[in-house]
Please model this.
Amino acid sequence: MSSESTEVWTGWYRDRSGAEAIVITADGRHVATRIRGIEYTGESFAALSAAAEGGQALTACVLEWDLPLPVVMDGTSQPATLSCLLTLGERADLSLTLHYGGAAFESCVAGGDFDGALERVRRQLPPGADFGRRLLQTA
Model:
């Protein structure tokens, strides 16, 4: 992944064995994280797998991270934070919460469809408001 096009977010990994801090990277085509010494990559958060472990999918866990996502209202960029919670089990459940202007805009989707969940958050914003930047397509 080139550092020029890579986004890096910090977060948490939790499973029945405990919790640990993680770093998530996304380069526009792939998402990656290292958990307990094993590198997991995939085309989306819900499709993370460990190539070194025979392609074993990441499952039976929770990933949680925050990322800055400014909102533009009337031509002015205002700070906002997108909180993400992904539960990986028999299916992927994704919850997004945008904290902006003293309010929380939420979206929950089954299947881990990040783009779909983000669009649901966007539709809840006040008229004339939009995200101040595009997130990577794979995220």
In short: DSSP finds one helix and 13 strands in the chain. The chain has a mean pLDDT of 90.
